[in-house]
Design brief:
By secondary structure, this protein is of the alpha/beta class. It folds into 2 domains: 1-75 and 152-229, Rossmann fold, CATH 3.40.50.300; 83-150, no CATH class. Helix content is 33%, strand content 27%. Helix 3 (91-99) packs across helix 4 and helix 4 (105-118) packs across helix 5. The longest helix has 14 residues, at 105-118. It comes from Dysgonomonas macrotermitis. Residues 2-229 form the ABC transporter domain.
Length: 229
């Protein structure tokens, strides 16, 4: 379990996050919703170790991640909204490069082949990344985030910009892999996570305004649309 404890992030006088607290559990897909500019990406960057909070702490299995940041990063897969990819590299070449940061050399080829199959890149892995469609670039980013079989998966707008068919396939894939992971799925659209999330968080202007189970979906949906009118 991950516990986010009173996390705040300040940029000068501007407060991007204001004492945010919640928990993330293994086997759950937690939807992280809010309008653009709510602070979702800032919090995910803190969770991934890209940013340091101004105050507060994050516990992973009761251990403060600031005490051993390399350990938590090795257990985390992160797909940013604008995932940076080396577009001159071939898909398989890039995934082998990413895998080499985490895996023993003898395991790389097998794991890359597995991720190509899992993420639906069987017809694309011989191509250069720059030649791929937007949807297939998302798949490469997801394969990279999963390459080391992380315990924690942080997904920032993973379905944004996809056509309806790609959208459903990515949601199905995330659902399939979720039982063994802690999954945080960020979106500014309710339908991105509807039907797959078991827990919902709504952030607005740096404040956590809702933290609820999917059992209360009607109330959650109304709260979300009230914020985005």
């Amino acid at each position: 379990m991950i516990e986010i404890c009173d996390i705040s992030k300040d940029y000068g006088k501007e407060k991007a996050l204001n004492s945010i607290s919640f928990s993330l559990k293994k086997g759950e897909i937690t939807a992280f919703l809010g309008p653009n500019g709510a602070g979702k990406t800032t919090l995910m960057n803190i969770l991934a170790g890209v940013l340091q909070p101004s105050s507060g702490k994050i516990l992973y299995d009761n251990e403060d991640i600031s005490a051993n940041p390399v350990k938590i990063k090795s257990k985390t897969g992160y797909l940013p909204e604008y995932n940076p990819l080396y577009e001159d590299m071939y898909v398989r070449e890039y995934l082998e490069y990413a895998a080499a940061f985490y895996l023993p050399k003898k395991e790389i080829q097998g794991r890359v082949s597995e991720m190509i199959e899992t993420t639906g890149l069987k017809d694309e892995y011989r191509k250069k990344i720059g030649a791929l469609s937007y949807g297939n670039k998302k798949r490469v980013g997801l394969a990279q985030a999963l390459i080391h079989n992380p315990d924690i998966l942080i997904l920032d707008e993973p379905t944004n910009g996809l056509d309806p068919n790609q959208h459903q396939k990515i949601k199905a894939l995330i659902t399939e892999i979720s039982p063994s992971k802690i999954v945080l799925f960020s979106s500014h659209r309710f339908d991105d996570v509807e039907g797959i999330a078991s827990h919902y968080l709504i952030l607005n202007k740096g404040n956590l305004v809702l933290n609820d189970r999917a059992d209360n979906i009607a109330s959650i949906e109304n709260s979300f649309y009230d914020l985005t009118k």
